[in-house]
Design goal:
Structural class: mainly alpha
Helix content: over 70%
Number of strands: 0
Largest sheet: none
Length: about 210
């Protein structure tokens, strides 16, 4: 799957974005300087400002691209579940496996990245517009998949697909509330709660 954000991008611009994405793996955005990016990429300052209005825009685009990579991966995973499941029970099992995956540092970092990007965009109209398109792509894709599931008789026809799409994402991203507290919830109980929601609310027995 090719992200919308990677289509029709000039090679130099693309390389600058990829350079910042690489640096973001080991540094916070405010620790990255334009001098560092240009030296790492071997690209002139003039080329940078030819493709971006300013250096902050390059950082914003790289953050959104990283967000878009997550979007692509999520859409692909959910599409696979929806299209390969032969029964309601099989589909619920696959959804539950994803929702209750063993916590890793990477998963927690991904949640933190999503929340950080969203918070930065709130007061940045330029970033908010671009991020909004990626988020809309994810929400719309999940909603469309749920419509297909409802058509099979496995979903809840009383819930609007977009509501379900937002609810599913809220459960995942919302775990950051537990991430930042010193006392964490019981993961087995979390799994039981997820299973209850899946079987009685999102995929109830017809």
């Amino acid at each position: 799957m090719v992200s919308m954000s990677t289509q029709m991008v000039h090679p130099t611009k693309e390389f600058l974005i990829e350079t910042v994405m690489t640096l973001l793996q080991s540094k916070e955005a405010d620790q990255i300087t334009s001098e560092e990016v240009l030296a790492f990429a071997g690209i002139s300052r003039g080329s940078l400002y030819h493709h971006f209005a300013d250096f902050p825009e390059l950082i914003e685009v790289a953050k959104i691209r990283r967000f878009g990579t997550f979007v692509d991966r999520t859409i692909e995973t959910l599409q696979t579940i929806a299209t390969t499941s032969g029964t309601r029970e099989e589909m619920i099992t696959k959804f539950r496996e994803i929702a209750t995956l063993k916590e890793t540092d990477e998963m927690r970092a991904l949640r933190m990245h999503r929340i950080t990007v969203i918070s930065r965009a709130i007061h940045n109209p330029r970033m908010a517009d671009a991020l909004g398109l990626e988020q809309e792509r994810l929400t719309t894709s999940i909603a469309n998949l749920y419509r297909e599931i409802v058509a099979k008789g496995w979903g809840n026809s009383e819930l609007e697909p977009r509501t379900v799409a937002v609810m599913i994402q809220s459960c995942t991203v919302g775990k950051i509330i537990d991430d930042i507290t010193p006392n964490h919830m019981n993961n087995e109980n979390w799994s039981e709660a997820v299973n209850l929601v899946l079987e009685t609310v999102i995929f109830p027995v017809a």
